[in-house]
Specification:
single chain; about 230 residues; alpha/beta; five-stranded parallel β-sheet; 8 helices; 5 strands
Length: about 230
């Protein structure tokens, strides 16, 4: 579905690392009436620690909301998150990979991951999926089954460390001109069912879940949130 919501505020999710440098302080004793002949050569300065450059990898899984349909490349939320992390953490470089496409359901995303075979050493993975299951009237039971499969796959991409997974709620496209032309109330109620299921599953399994749906419900009053 071509109804991507552009969330301008970058997600403040977490701090990946903290690097602290300790500097040695050198003290010297001043003496009076020192003859030139007795002055010792100045000691060589202590080598200072060099900034540590850290490179981490981030993979974003999803559909049009992740790839950023109809918005600029740097406007898509994974790019915003990458930029925010790099500007927040000194000397951090984020290598971003996106597996997402407009119109993808959970089934499409599962197949794409199998075909692309990403490595399992990523440091962060985000998952935002399900709107096209609802839009294409796929059985909700299919989403229940494949959402869990995608969760397990996502965790495997970060070496089995579930703390490195962040699940993002599905935006509510009822609050767009496109959504208003359909059954908006039905769209919202169905998406609430999807989001409630995902949120409950994450809570029961101690997974990070970021709820952004309320932001997207400002789309009719704040038209800047809606992609062209």
């Amino acid at each position: 579905a071509n109804f991507s919501i552009h969330i301008k505020t970058a997600l403040h999710l977490f701090i990946l690392m903290v690097v602290v440098f300790f500097f040695n302080q050198c003290s010297s004793e001043n003496t009076n009436f020192v003859s030139i002949a007795k002055i010792s050569p100045a000691p060589s300065p202590e080598p200072q620690p060099q900034p540590i450059s850290k490179k981490v990898s981030y993979i974003a899984l999803g559909d049009s909301y992740t790839i950023g349909q109809s918005v600029c490349v740097t406007c898509r939320f994974p790019e915003q998150l990458k930029k925010k992390l790099e500007s927040t953490i000194p000397n951090l470089s984020v290598d971003l990979k996106i597996i997402a496409q407009t119109g993808w359901t959970t089934s499409n995303l599962i197949q794409a991951i199998k075909e692309q075979q990403p490595t399992s050493d990523y440091k962060l993975v985000t998952l935002l999926i399900g709107v096209n299951n609802q839009y294409q009237n796929r059985p909700f039971e299919l989403y229940e089954t494949e959402f869990i499969e995608l969760i397990q796959t996502a965790i495997s991409l970060v070496g089995g460390d579930a703390s490195k997974l962040i699940v993002v709620s599905i935006p509510d496209y009822a609050y767009t001109p496109f959504g208003q032309g359909s059954n908006a109330l039905n769209i919202s109620s169905q998406l609430e069912l999807y989001n409630s299921y995902a949120q409950t599953y994450c809570a029961e399994n101690n997974l990070k879940y970021v709820y952004i749906t309320d932001i997207t419900q400002q789309g009719l009053t704040n038209t800047a949130l809606v992609a062209s």
